[in-house]
Amino acid sequence: MTANDPRGVPVPEAPSGGEKRRRAPRLTTTSGVMTYVLIALAVLLPVPYMLQLPGPVFNTLGDHEGKPMIDVSGAKTYPTDGRIDMLTVAVSGGPGRDTYASQALGALFAGKETVIPTEAYYPIDTTREDVAETNSVEMSSSQDVAVAAAMEQLDEPYEVHLLVDGVVPDSPAEGQLRKGDRIISVNGEKLDSEPDAAKILSRTVQSSQNVDLVVERGDEDVDVALDPATIEGRHAIGITMKQDFEFPVDVAFNVEGIGGPSAGTMFALAIIDELTPGAMTGGKHVAGTGEIDPAGKVGPIGGARQKVAASTAQGAELFMSPAENCAEVIQAADQSKITVARIDTLDDAQNAVEQYAAGDTSDLKKCPAGGADNNEKGQ
């Protein structure tokens, strides 16, 4: 955006009189020029904000660049129909990229984008490479968790193991634990094959002065005794963790270049659709969002306003919103074009799709008109 040409601004005529009065218009003109120059410079200065706007939309039941978005093998699969869209948010600005005052102001006036302080999302020393790596890790993790949630929903057994993914220097774990150690138990509580193992371990560390671990390292079990310490303000032993899953099916995701965890719920629905007879959507077009955990609990995401706008523009007839995003979704949704369902769990999401496919939404859990959080149906 450029400033108005100062030459197009009317300048008062010089009043008659002495020499000082004749010079006044020049000072006024110079002052006006300087004012507009300063405004122009201010508008073009980078500001510490990011803009969220609707990003590309992908059909999890379809193809992407000539390959299936989700390819399930190792078990009997069934034909699908319709669309279950996963939604993305495009971001302007953030670490390594400038947002200009003109862009931020334009977004505020347009009302279609969200302007947020960069520091609300990223520490000040975050680089663009850090963001890309985090998004990639979150996407990879969300895929595994989506498969786990789908297996839970289908009552299919699977195994999950908690591994040490890294050790913090100068922490209690340094020299005691190694990357790749499989954590079997903590203070006598079994963790192996427990979907909530990471939460259990974290909770135990937070509440204990001593932590006794049993880890599998190679072909042997090793006992490790640690005394938690304060690390970056938290009671911790100084490790990062990751889950390693063993599923009864193989699932390949064609999502290169897409990051973040918010597609988990739609991934899980697509997997269930492929592994069960009949088209879950009944040939209809639905969309939604939501992070998910292995137990099927749906969590809130960022950019909900942009996602419901993108799904409406693509012609989706049902939008599934995490409960905690209801307020902003209802505010942004054109409800004359799209029905908004509230989902707390994967079971809610599957029921919403199946009810909409059957043409009966009388029992559909909906985000209330005011966006408040409640448990009533049909509100």
Describe the protein's architecture and organization.
Helices cover 30% and strands 27% of the residues. The protein is α+β, with helices and mostly antiparallel strands and 379 residues long. The chain has three domains: 6-44; 49-154 and 250-358, 2-Layer Sandwich (Ribosomal Protein S5, domain 2); 159-246, Roll (Pdz3 Domain), CATH 2.30.42.10. The strands form seven sheets. Strands 8-2-6-18-21-22 form a six-stranded mixed beta sheet, sandwiched between helices. A hairpin with a 5-residue loop joins strand 19 and strand 20 (298-299). Helix 6 packs across helix 7 (326-332). It is globular. Mean pLDDT is 80; it is low at 1-24 and 372-379.
Would you summarize the structure shown here?
This protein is an alpha+beta fold and 379 residues long.
